[in-house]
Amino acid sequence: MDTRTLFRRNPDLLLEWDDDSGSVLVDSRSGRKFVAKPELVDLLGRLDGPLTADELNARWPHQTDADTTRTLLERLASAGIVRHDDKEDTEPAADGLTPYERACHAGAGRGPLPGTRRGTPPPARLCHPEATGTVPLPDARDLPSRALAEVLSERRSVRDFAAEPVPLMLLAAFLDRSARVRGYLPPRSYEQTQRPAPSGGARHSLEIYLVARDVEQLPPGAYHYDAFDHALHRLSDWNDDLAALQHRTITLPALLNEAPPAGLYLASRADRTGWKYAGMALSMIYRDTGCLLQTMCLTATDLGLASCPTGRMEVPVSAPFLQPYEQRLLHVGNLALGLPDPAATTTAPTPTELPAGA
Question: What is the CB neighbour count within 10 angstroms for residue 155?
Fold first, then answer.
């Protein structure tokens, strides 16, 4: 055997803890699991680059002789725990994913874990008892709507906003058409709701928070959208922390010249989805986020509002108005919202004409 054969650890391996087996190595690509004794973990830790059996033997405190170490490495290579360091194996993974991303994808493909749907499901409604006030949103159901084909053809991510406030009536119509609860689905005890955007298992884990800088008839600040009562619950006055949050999650990642009049901060109450889809819940939440953002973008286009989604996520939740919920919510997305700047060169939707007196 060539003594210059190089070995390296499988870059797809992740180390997990199992209640029964202790530490376990998981191949994130194949899904295979291996009991990881401390000596094996130590060996893989020292195999931090392409090494020969002689080189590894010299730095591994459990070594006996190079031939024994070489035999061990070949056995580990056969199992897929280490690899021979040839050109094919050293090239980056074709899918461009990290081991953590591949493990998440593999988990989603295997479906939910056994034992889901046990106990009482989390409620579909999240209340904020600390809210300092409630703003009922106007009934905007009479505002006109355009043909779907026209809306689809005009949808754009718009980054130029007019220097004027968002009309409250348009904001109300936007939230009504994109996110308002239409009712419960049976069985009622499962806490499944019907809403405009689809959600896996009708779990609808996403909560919508409005960061309002310039909205008509609305004091600047942070609000929670109550999708059941179609109202905004005030959580915070406008302050430097809100401005910084909007800059980090919307203005900067969307490459905007200035902050938008309004921004939406989407947070997931993950246990709603996990109750039914434990093991693949995160994947479902990401899909739900995409569905909601697309529904919001199309709704904005229909109403003549300018919108631009961003995928910036902060871990843990950094919104100052959500500090009491840091362990219960996941930040999953954002949306800039305002009236389009008519002077911008980008094709922008035409704002919906409001009825007289609105």
Answer: 16
Residues 211-262: tens digit of each pLDDT = 999 999 999 999 999 999 999 999 999 999 999 999 999 999 999 999 999 9
SS3 338: strand
Q: Which two tokens stand for residue 5?
A: 């054969």
Domain spanning 133-338: CATH 2.60.120.260:
no
Rounded to two decimals, the pTM is 0.87
Place of tokens 């709603």: 272
Quote the CA–CA distance of 25 and 161 in Å, as a whole number. 50
Separation CA 334–CA 310 (nearest Å)? 5
Rounded distance between C-alpha atoms, residue 145 and residue 14, angstroms: 51
Instruction: For the chain, give every domain's residue range.
Output: 7-104, 133-338
Indicate left, alpha or beta for 99 from its phi (over 0: left) and psi (-120 to 50: alpha). alpha
